[in-house]
Amino acid sequence: MDINLLVKITSRAWALSILDKLHLGIPGRQAALLAATGAGRTAFLQSLEHLVTLGLLERNPGHGHPLRPEFRLTPAGVAAAGLAHEVLKAVRQDEQDLLRLSWTLPVLATLQAAHPFGEIRRSLPSITDRALSHSLRSMEQRTWIHRHVEETTRPPRPLYMAINNGAVVSSLAGAVLGR
């Protein structure tokens, strides 16, 4: 899996949770998945359609009703579902809301070591400065990353490093991305 696919997957709030539930064997029917994820109906349907568009899910032919289709993982979806399961298993239930933010997982995937803002930004070409700042700030508030200002350089520059749950998620995502 490459970083661009990871960015696309996490652009919908409930995509990781849907992939995780399918990995766990929850039936691919909308009602079962909706109940298992705890998502709102509109956000859930958007995430489900997004996963179909990415080619990670497909309609299960011969199963389900035309208005209530059943879905299954594609071969590419199986790998993504495995990552989603490992990541969500590593994070406590009360902290999983941070993983529903678009850039949390891609940013953590780039933080295998301490990096300055600019290097993180170059690793994720489609992220804006504002989105990266917001993502780093929200993870810093939850102590998923540590911001350290390197005073020996001129001008001083902050370095960001994954810690605690962030380090666990970073290593899982980095292993899948081959970093």
TrEMBL record:
* GO molecular function list: DNA binding
Q: Which residues form the HTH hxlR-type domain?
A: 90-179
Keywords linked to the UniProt accession: DNA-binding, Transcription, Transcription regulation
Looking at the keywords, is Transcription present? yes
At the top level, the lineage of the source is Bacteria
Q: Which InterPro entries match?
A: HTH_HxlR, WH-like_DNA-bd_sf, WH_DNA-bd_sf
Q: Name one Pfam family in it.
A: HxlR
Gene3D superfamilies per record: Winged helix-like DNA-binding domain superfamily/Winged helix DNA-binding domain (1.10.10.10)
Q: What is this protein called?
A: Transcriptional regulator
Please report the organism this UniProt entry assigns to the protein: Pannonibacter tanglangensis
